[in-house]
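User: Please fill in residues for this 169-position structure.
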């Protein structure tokens, strides 16, 4: 782990309010990074937030000195893959290893479940794309609109680890 950054799997009972607060901050801070919107999620009930932390996926939280500074989630969508979603780091903690610590937390969970990571990144978000590439993600060439009706485009990237073989397409 990066010095000073703690990452742990989120628990629906203990962490739903922290997840909610970070998610709403993320949607306001970086609206073009997510398929959802602040306007859609601000009205979610407690049960909806708890459901997001349960089920067949995983959610991880990053803290620095006990303060929540980042989040990421993943769900199984394609065979053998965990789709990374809701990835966000507080602007005051970016470029300090928090994002990579979150990815490592997801990767460890995925490895334990026989999965590999993939994600969608906005093609105009060069900082995020560069960070993902440095971590080991490879562009697939597969693109789609960020959300229905959006002119913004995301591209799927797959984590490449030599021991795992070629990235899935």
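Assistant: Residues filled in for all 169 positions:
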């Amino acid at each position: 782990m990066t010095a000073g950054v703690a990452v742990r799997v989120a628990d629906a009972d203990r962490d739903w309010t922290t997840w909610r607060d970070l998610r709403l901050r993320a949607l306001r801070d970086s609206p073009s990074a997510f398929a959802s919107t602040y306007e859609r999620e601000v009205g979610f009930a407690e049960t909806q937030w708890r459901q997001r932390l349960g089920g067949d996926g995983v959610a991880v939280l990053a803290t620095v000195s006990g303060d929540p500074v980042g989040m990421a989630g993943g769900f199984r969508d394609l065979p053998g893959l965990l789709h990374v979603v809701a990835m966000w780091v507080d602007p005051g903690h970016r470029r300090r290893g928090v994002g990579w610590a979150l990815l490592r937390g997801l990767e460890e969970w995925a490895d334990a479940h026989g999965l590999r990571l993939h994600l969608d990144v906005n093609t105009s978000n060069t900082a995020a794309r560069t960070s993902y590439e440095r971590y080991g993600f490879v562009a697939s060439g597969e693109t789609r609109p960020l959300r229905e009706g959006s002119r913004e485009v995301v591209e799927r990237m797959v984590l490449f680890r030599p021991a795992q073989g070629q990235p899935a397409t």
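For context: The chain has a mean pLDDT of 92.
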